[in-house]
Write a structure and sequence with these properties.
This protein is an alpha/beta fold and about 575 residues long. The strands form six sheets. Strands 1, 2, 3, 4, 5, 18, 23, 24 and 25 form a nine-stranded mixed beta sheet that branches. The chain has a six-stranded parallel beta sheet with strand order 9-10-11-12-13-17. The longest helix is centred in the first third of the chain and has 17 residues, at about 170-185. It comes from Mycolicibacterium arenosum.
């Protein structure tokens, strides 16, 4: 037989969790037709006897809602093996929308997800009003990777309720929102998302519409999903992370109760964000027990977990710099990085900045560090140490060297020609390690996600979590147990694909899409984060590249090779669930 592509002799990790095996993979018309010993010829043969062959990664938690309208590759996620990106998370997005609400939705996205509003305003062309029209616009654009999206509650409220979006909805409002949900799901939305944490605020400081929705609204919208007969519900629960100083009107325990109860009542796939809090690091075990009980009663609930700490990177390339509230440093912030670093190396400039009292700023800020925070602040270093030990903190270094921690911070940030970062983990880092996170990821009830691709781009680049899971957790971790390769691949491919009803992908088997990663597992690793100004309107962001992805294929066509983007555009819009092939 003759095929389009044969990948020969690779170590196949098929996405099901099954043991690795050496096999060939044959592709015709964008579909896998054989996995095993393949005889025959192909228009292209790839020698993979030194490579690990996996399905393309399915990232269920991104915020590319705007970027997907101008960027066919969805960088940086495509550099990290992602071939399907699901957006519309956390209750926010850009459809449905009335024409007079464009700027309002941009400000909401900028406030909650730290995506530059100037880039969104310049890049989005607003070719839609209804959610179905938004899907049509996404489908018209040629793209390299597949995108799917969920209907966000905040945009829905604003569309139906206008200036009353923060109020309690009337019966007529609920009816109109319910119709829009059903219509959006039938048009091809993959689900719906609720954002309920008071820590999420717009640029003006207002909560996300829907943050304090009462149960009648939740029931109405979930009922509409049932009426449509499809869709995943994604929830950012109130209380997650102790609200990060927000107005805590609910606790996450109460949230897990309604999630479990309504999840069992309606039976739809439902995922909520779960992170470890330093103050109560064992709370997650209680939530997981409640979920398992609910699932035995008919629910399909999955706590969604990350693969590293939730926090920020502080430095001269980050929006968060420890010295930005000091007037002398603030006056230098517009200088190009190289020139700024040259000025900062002057001993007189250092003495002047360290002698200044920080401004109060606009309320509590991670920039205004204290003795406790210095114990949680770590140089990222050449090894990109996202699981640093306590003796590597700024506080520990200062104590060993008998120096002021501010002095240590200043000098540290001048490392790597001013490109050094300080890692400030806020959640998922109880006890200065990832032991809790390992147990959460190892629990089969959890769902891998929380990479936030496209979001928080001024302070992190967590879209690289896929690579981190495959390199650090599988190969490099020494401070505790690792994750088996087969488990890691399953959590990035077959598991999330199945949960979202995407049975056509996530597994290397005949009849499935030929979305494939060819990985040099020994070479797989992250580059240092860097700031670039490549968004519309020249807006900046932090990106992070990777080594080890020899090729990433979508429908059998190479979209990234050796870290470089190709001109292939085999991707498209994922409209609704896709059944698994028969046989």
């Amino acid at each position: 037989m003759s095929y389009d592509v044969i990948i020969r002799g690779g170590t196949v990790v098929d996405g099901t969790g099954a043991a690795t095996r050496t096999a060939d993979v044959a592709v015709t018309d964008g579909v896998i037709v054989e996995v095993g010993r393949v005889d025959g010829t192909a228009r292209r043969t790839i020698d993979a006897d030194w490579l690990t062959v996996t399905p393309g990664f399915v990232d269920v938690h991104t915020h590319f809602d705007g970027q997907a309208t101008w960027d066919p590759h969805l960088t940086p996620s495509c550099w990290h093996g992602v071939t399907t990106a699901i957006m519309g998370n956390c209750g926010i997005g850009f459809a449905p929308v009335k024409p007079d609400r464009h700027d309002w939705l941009i400000e909401l996205m900028e406030g909650v997800e730290d995506i530059p509003g100037s880039a969104l305003a310049e890049g989005i062309t607003w070719e839609w009003e209804t959610f179905g029209e938004y899907l049509d616009a996404l489908e018209r654009m040629p793209r390299a990777v597949d995108v799917g999206t969920q209907l966000p509650q905040a945009a829905l409220r604003a569309y139906v309720m206008g200036d009353r979006a923060l109020d309690a909805p009337t019966a007529d409002d609920l009816a109109a929102m319910s119709r829009a949900v059903t219509e959006g799901l039938r048009a091809g939305a993959l689900g719906m998302s609720f954002g309920r944490t008071a820590g999420h605020r717009s640029l003006s400081g207002e909560p996300v519409p829907g943050t304090f929705s009462e149960e009648d609204e939740l029931v109405a919208l979930m009922s509409a999903m049932v009426d449509a007969g499809t869709g995943v519900l994604q929830v950012v629960p109130a209380g997650v992370g102790g609200e990060m100083g927000g107005d805590q009107r609910h606790s996450i325990d109460a949230e897990v109760k309604w999630i479990s109860r309504l999840g069992a009542r309606f039976g739809m796939p439902l995922t909520f964000l779960a992170m470890v809090n330093e103050q109560d690091p064992h709370d997650w075990r209680r939530w997981f027990r409640a979920v398992r009980d609910a699932n035995r009663a008919g629910a399909n609930v999955r706590p969604q977990v990350a693969s590293r700490a939730f926090g920020m990177l502080m430095g001269h390339q980050s929006r968060m710099n420890p010295f930005r509230h000091r007037p002398t440093y603030r006056a230098l912030m517009e200088l190009p990085l190289g020139e700024r670093v040259r000025v900062l190396r002057n001993p007189e400039m250092k003495a002047r900045i360290l002698a200044e009292t920080p401004d109060a700023g606009d309320g509590p800020s991670a920039d205004q560090l204290n003795r406790y925070t210095f114990k949680r602040l770590y140089p990222l270093g050449d090894r990109l140490d996202y699981e640093p030990s306590a003796d590597g903190s700024i506080a520990a270094i200062a104590e060993r060297e008998n120096r002021d921690p501010w002095d240590v911070t200043y000098d540290t940030l001048l490392g790597a020609d001013g490109r050094e970062f300080l890692l400030l983990p806020l959640l998922n880092y109880a006890g200065n390690n990832y032991d809790h996170l390992h147990d959460m990821m190892s629990d089969p009830v959890s769902l891998q996600g929380l990479g936030d691709g496209g979001a928080h781009c001024g302070i992190i680049c967590d879209a690289s979590m896929t690579t981190y899971l495959m390199s650090y957790w599988v190969r490099d971790r020494t401070r505790g147990p690792r994750i088996p390769l087969e488990t890691a691949v399953h959590r990035l491919t077959g598991d999330p694909a199945a949960f979202y009803g995407l049975g056509d992908r996530g597994v290397l088997a005949p009849g499935r899409r030929a979305d494939i990663n060819l990985i040099d597992l020994d070479d797989l690793g992250l580059h240092y984060p860097e700031r670039v100004e490549d968004l519309p309107a020249g807006a900046g962001r932090l990106i992070q590249r990777a080594d080890g992805y020899v090729e990433t294929l979508v429908l059998g066509e190479t979209i990234v090779a050796g870290g470089e983007l190709t001109d292939s555009r085999p991707g498209g819009l994922v409209r609704g669930p896709r059944p698994a092939p028969v046989g």
